[in-house]
Specification:
Elements: E1 3-9, H1 13-26, E2 30-36, H2 43-53, E3 57-61, H3 68-81, E4 88-91, H4 102-110, E5 115-119, E6 127-128, H5 132-148, E7 161-164, H6 165-170, H7 181-193, E8 198-202, E9 205-206, H8 217-236
Parallel strand pairs: 1-2, 1-4, 2-3, 5-8, 6-9
Antiparallel strand pairs: 4-7, 5-7
Helix pairs in contact: 1-2, 5-8, 7-8
The structure holds guanosine-5'-triphosphate (GTP) and magnesium ion.
Residues 8-10, 12, 35-37, 65-68, 71, 93-95, 97, 207-208, 212-214 line the site of guanosine-5'-triphosphate.
Amino acid sequence: MRMLVIIPTYNELENITKLIPIILGLKEEMEVLVVDDNSPDGTGNYVEHLSSENNRIHILKRAGKMGLGSAYIEGFKWALKQEPKFDYIFQMDADFSHEPEKLIEFIEKLKKYDVVIGSRYLNGVSVVNWPIKRLILSYFANWYARTFAGIKIRDCTGGFKGFRRIVLEKIPFEYITSDGYAFQIEMNYFAQKLGFKMFEVPIIFVDRHSGTSKLSRRIVYEAIFKVIFLFFDRIFNIKKVKR
Ligand SMILES: Nc1nc2c(ncn2[C@@H]2O[C@H](COP(=O)(O)OP(=O)(O)OP(=O)(O)O)[C@@H](O)[C@H]2O)c(=O)[nH]1
Ligand SMILES: [Mg+2]
């Protein structure tokens, strides 16, 4: 068994310093890939240094801030190329919004399911420290994606997930272009369209700090348009996929 946790970073030096040892300590089979977009605080160089001393730590350095969606896709593609093959591939944020210990539960569930999703909206709402505006937006975005894209998941915009490698081999990354919340929606949409078995694990999402959300207007528009496109795809099967 070989497992990889992909962590995109932009200025996360302090967080990543603490997070990597926790993840590596969870299980011997666990490895970490940091996808860094040339963080001005030196996150990338620091992880590069760690990776030269520990073969369970990997770094992908990109030239500049190119967005979360493309960072994940580059990470997924990197993971699929490695030998021996990774069986399970996870994604999580660096900022401790996602509790690393939950990965153990994800691993258990991946024995039965193809995709495991950390869900904030399974038993009511489990979000700590979020401004009410952001919560309402996230909740509405999920209702919207479920209704129009037909995604049968309570939390379609979350970024704490695990995949069996087959899922990432089959998802058509050439069709996935979005960066923000819509990236997670698209991934879930195509995983569901391909007929993969998906399971939600309840998580408690804790915000890093108040006020400095990176949520931009562009990311909201992106999600609105993407979901409309997925609505048409659902009806007319525009993007052909097969397993
Ligand atoms: N490589 C890369 N990582 C990014 C980029 N933008 C954000 N990240 C990382 O992606 C993860 C999630 O981003 P966050 O900024 O925490 O997004 P958020 O949780 O919506 O917003 P916050 O309120 O700031 O926590 C973190 O680990 C970030 O460092 C990017 O453009 N490139
Ligand atoms: Mg965050």
